[in-house]
Amino acid sequence: MTFPAPVSPLRFSRLLLTGAAGGLGRELRPRLKRYCDTLRLSDIADLGGASPGEEMQPVRLEDRSAVADLLKGVDAVVHLGGVSVETPFDPILQANIVGVFNLYEAARIHGVKRIVFASSNHVTGFYRQDEVIDTDAPMRPDGLYGVSKAFGENLSRFYFDRYGIETACLRIGSSFPEPKDRRMLATWMSFDDLERLVVACLTAPIVGHSVIYGISDNRTKWWDNTRAAHLGYVPQDSSEPFRAAVEARQPTLDLRDPAVIYQGGAFVRTGPLE
Amino acid sequence: MTFPAPVSPLRFSRLLLTGAAGGLGRELRPRLKRYCDTLRLSDIADLGGASPGEEMQPVRLEDRSAVADLLKGVDAVVHLGGVSVETPFDPILQANIVGVFNLYEAARIHGVKRIVFASSNHVTGFYRQDEVIDTDAPMRPDGLYGVSKAFGENLSRFYFDRYGIETACLRIGSSFPEPKDRRMLATWMSFDDLERLVVACLTAPIVGHSVIYGISDNRTKWWDNTRAAHLGYVPQDSSEPFRAAVEARQPTLDLRDPAVIYQGGAFVRTGPLE
Amino acid sequence: MTFPAPVSPLRFSRLLLTGAAGGLGRELRPRLKRYCDTLRLSDIADLGGASPGEEMQPVRLEDRSAVADLLKGVDAVVHLGGVSVETPFDPILQANIVGVFNLYEAARIHGVKRIVFASSNHVTGFYRQDEVIDTDAPMRPDGLYGVSKAFGENLSRFYFDRYGIETACLRIGSSFPEPKDRRMLATWMSFDDLERLVVACLTAPIVGHSVIYGISDNRTKWWDNTRAAHLGYVPQDSSEPFRAAVEARQPTLDLRDPAVIYQGGAFVRTGPLE
Amino acid sequence: MTFPAPVSPLRFSRLLLTGAAGGLGRELRPRLKRYCDTLRLSDIADLGGASPGEEMQPVRLEDRSAVADLLKGVDAVVHLGGVSVETPFDPILQANIVGVFNLYEAARIHGVKRIVFASSNHVTGFYRQDEVIDTDAPMRPDGLYGVSKAFGENLSRFYFDRYGIETACLRIGSSFPEPKDRRMLATWMSFDDLERLVVACLTAPIVGHSVIYGISDNRTKWWDNTRAAHLGYVPQDSSEPFRAAVEARQPTLDLRDPAVIYQGGAFVRTGPLE
Amino acid sequence: MTFPAPVSPLRFSRLLLTGAAGGLGRELRPRLKRYCDTLRLSDIADLGGASPGEEMQPVRLEDRSAVADLLKGVDAVVHLGGVSVETPFDPILQANIVGVFNLYEAARIHGVKRIVFASSNHVTGFYRQDEVIDTDAPMRPDGLYGVSKAFGENLSRFYFDRYGIETACLRIGSSFPEPKDRRMLATWMSFDDLERLVVACLTAPIVGHSVIYGISDNRTKWWDNTRAAHLGYVPQDSSEPFRAAVEARQPTLDLRDPAVIYQGGAFVRTGPLE
Amino acid sequence: MTFPAPVSPLRFSRLLLTGAAGGLGRELRPRLKRYCDTLRLSDIADLGGASPGEEMQPVRLEDRSAVADLLKGVDAVVHLGGVSVETPFDPILQANIVGVFNLYEAARIHGVKRIVFASSNHVTGFYRQDEVIDTDAPMRPDGLYGVSKAFGENLSRFYFDRYGIETACLRIGSSFPEPKDRRMLATWMSFDDLERLVVACLTAPIVGHSVIYGISDNRTKWWDNTRAAHLGYVPQDSSEPFRAAVEARQPTLDLRDPAVIYQGGAFVRTGPLE
């Protein structure tokens, strides 16, 4: 099999968005459409009807041949699909481990050369909230979900070193309409900044294998993206306008609560039951 | 003795401000009142009359039992008290060494869980003005005053590791109404930024034991606060508007002068006489 | 469920050795017997007959309940089980991902507090042979096998941070009777040094979560174990006595061969077919 | 020979600008005039007529005695002279190696105490565009031009350590009226920012031997100037307003092209012919 | 006052040994005699009779003028004096803070140019026993004793930066006839190695301000002296021959005991009472 | 022009030794003969008669075409040629700058793939003798000679990054029959260790571009070769047996002497006259 020369475009013939029915997927769906002729959408949940320029291809990520088909004819992938919360191991295993392997195998087979991978801050959730880490700090996942995202980061590192498939791993903080609690004053990323981040990673001339934390320009920061400055992500939003309301709702914190101590927040209290 | 669960509040029942009659103390006094029901004030100099919500408790820091009383019923401390210039050893010993020990012992005895400690840039004053250091650089004090502040930082580190008492060590640059000389173009912190810094440290969900340089967003920087970004201090002021006036007053510098070479400025020329 | 206080012993009532029928397992079996009253052995391959003080409990690692039983009554585990070469994904998935998860869940359920985990140098196999890395260098696995070992390291990190189960991750180089090729002059670990390493990790007062490369005191080194010096592993053997014979068999190397360029050697050329 | 005390002024009696007829020299010529009584200009190309306060002293940099004369009576030097592109070795040798040696010898002889040296990003051009380096990263020049600039940086380091002559090495990215291609979105420095950078280095109280990358505040960054923050260079411009036009002209990039992979861009493809 | 040129000798006219009646002082007393014409001895405890070449000058370290007299005519100091265990603050304050200040002032006044200062591993005792630190790691003292030794290190740093008085800070582990417990297998230093270390620091051509951990070549290591290799200390002994006996006496450890978790051992449990 | 595949052999058909008539060249000449069929020798000084298996080809390094001829038919080069002491700039320029460029151009033209380059500790001679650096520390040359060796290191880095020509840069300390002074107790390398180092670099499977300090296993060390451990150089000798004699000859040192303060020793006092 031979592929055309790997090309870094600014606009794509066909982009694949997985997890398109999820919270972030629904936000990105109309926004990514602007960067491609065809936006292929996939999810296991209902995707609604296809708008012009959209095409639907729902697959289960653990279905290897369906995923292989999914990447056919695709220029680049924004992979939001999979489990995005702490659950028992089996769903995580299927979607985030088997599923991510299937995705990269499909990319290899079909010559897809760039993937924007929704990793998570929970890859490093067991660092403390009173320390600041950069993107090279050793992984300290805060649960099985975080461990599965670490798997995805390492697998994609291998596919870059071995096959030249570029991946930007986005360690997304908390992307919601607004920050919901005190922790999110540090971890929040607006939907507009999410778009900026994803588009920066899709259109950067070269991505190699990069790791970047997905946060807005918040006043409180635990994560230092200096080593990812080549990606050209400069957030424009901040959690600060929401501070007063958030603090009013949560005026005190218990300093013995692991969710207050560790960056992963409440995730560090889940995981298999003790 | 048992204490209630350590709680991180946004507003305090009773805050203690030591050194309340000093230059920075007088600035912070009305500002901190907004964050507490009662502001307890202490100094050895005249504190004037008590405003509503203020209470006076003047003590000498070297008086262990008086200091123990001082911290009774207090939620958190902003410790500006002590000697703040280079002097002979004995006053520094009493106020900044014995006094700081007394303060932490009192905090331990009364279950006070957070202290904002006015340390000083003179803890690292023997670095050169042509190098940039971060908050983890080995200490290089520029005089006995700087050595005493280093003592306070180390003592507070111990009280955190051993007793869980949180401290933010503020290595304050030069906090005055405006920068007075060329060096202060790098080291200046406005009073508004001082307030921002102190309040950030009082109200951050978790502080642990943190070190941060206290400067405004000046154009020239010797100190990199990246590792303290979790404190949420983002300065809003800058020495830049004062540059022209300062430079007009001090158009040349002697490159052989230790006060020009080292970050501590004129402090590096004091210390015990040669 | 409550467990007795976690204790760090020098000698064990019952040790579990998984992968006991493999190359390293057969070596360690008689050696580990000296450190315990009962040595429980497990593998999917034939284990031969039980010697005095041995007990057999063969399980498939992917069988969650069998693995749960396997760890019952065990003080500590030396986990060599699983796939130890590059294979298609499914066997690796079952043994090294599902299997390792099962092992840690079993350890959590039964209160086992220390695991010596046979990780692999292939976790970092895509570093070059002309660079020296330490145990904190970001992971760069050289194949699916390496990715699976990275999974095990991250999972065990989580089980330590969350449940206090200690793990020493041994990134074993090449443990054979003697080095077989030029690469192994750098990566070789004698069986005696393997024993020293495993025993050091079993009997160190405290292991926390540690990573260490498993090599003898070879003349050529790619891996710096300075950060693991607390484990007390000091190799006594070296590949040097084998150098002349090895070099005679392999007098030239092709500098364009990825197996010569990268630390993972021939593993970097395997992985899913191109 | 004795010199007056080394003084760090804000305004100079006589400044020397070499390379004054080149692209950057023509820009800086009127701007630097504002910071001195007399601006001495030198180049081997035509400098046009002298404006008031200018004096012309054209020399070939390889002419040792002429260069010695050139620095007589000079307070500080902005050294843009020499070859600024990849050429055969001999012109680079004469202008950038012999010439720079002549310049520093002249500075030593005449007691000139500060030099702003136009180094180049090509000193580190063989780093990849998907990595971010700081000013201490080991040099990786991308051609003979870059090697010659590395020579200048090392020579000036020696003249500082040995003779106290201060140098700011500006690793200039791409200083043109506007960015010409996608790479320059990362490397561009506006002429106004160039002036800010040069003036900051001329007027900083103390420079020692410093290295700083010369770029505007671009969205995409490969270079981290944190360690040079003492110089007080804060760029005010950005390549971002030019992005749309640049991307329209260069919508795709070939990811196999060394000029896309490495920071030095097309320079990495020149050098002695293969 | 003028002093003769600072000279680095191999043999001293007069050496001062403080703390000469303590455990380490009694060991070093006959050994140091070999390196000087006169060995001046000081302590507050009984020093016994003076041997030939010895002179006695007992002082209390908190007596400033007596300490000033003590350093008169001295070439170099080995300062073992002061409190060497965790006690209430006041004795530590007098001996280790006031006393060390007195010592350095006396050195400044009398032109003494090198001091070997017995610091302690307790300056960093709150690091964990499963981590390895080097001599630049931020201080984390484990008690008031450790805080006082940190004071001495910082004070001596100042006296070097300001007055050129050289100090080697020896962070002594556990120097006893033999290791007494499991922790000392990591921290032990034989008396012969203690002599090697002190003599290396006295006779190194240049010491500047250096920090080094005082341990033998033990199998288990928490401390990396790489940055102190210029001192030329290469230990010749090891705790290993004592391992079997030590382990027999202490076959199990409680992993919840702070003395097992932290490098400072039992010191971390002392400090002011909780 | 096409070359055969780059091959890393253990024994060479033809080795080139430049500077063969110098102090180190005369030592290496008989030793290197054992690793090749033909040893080509070059120098500008008298080489004496050719032994069997030797061939003479004396050239001036600044003669580009003669150097091009010199590398014809050569498998690898040990480049000791050039100026090895501080001299005026012109001889250094011709031999160490023009000459080294000629050498690498010749290597490129003739497909020579590995060069062992005699660099020097004087590349970093302005670090202090009380600090320990590794091979990545920024260059701080102590004279024009050191600057020229820095040029060679940077040029060879470029020829590796661009053309794949491997170089091991040996920052040789002091290689003499025995150490001559106190400084050489730190910097000395025996001739046997020199051979070990050169042979390790010639025969290592892959060298890339590496930097290593050339010293024996001396007790006092300023240089940390950890990052060069892949080269497999393990010194067997030490300056220690010579210590007593050396110290007897030089019992005191003047701590104000730059040659005592800086690693470069007396070189730091040479350079262009002040």
From TrEMBL, chains A, B, C, D, E, F:
Pfam families membership: Epimerase
InterPro entries recorded: Epimerase_deHydtase, NAD(P)-bd_dom_sf
The keyword Isomerase is assigned to this record: no
Record carries keyword Oxidoreductase: yes
Residue span(s) of domain NAD-dependent epimerase/dehydratase: 16-177
Keywords, comma-separated and alphabetical: NAD, Oxidoreductase
Origin superkingdom: Bacteria
Residue runs in coiled coils: none
SUPFAM superfamilies membership: NAD(P)-binding Rossmann-fold domains
Gene3D superfamilies: NAD(P)-binding Rossmann-like Domain (3.40.50.720)
UniProt family annotation: Belongs to the NAD(P)-dependent epimerase/dehydratase family.
Name of this protein: NAD(P)-dependent oxidoreductase
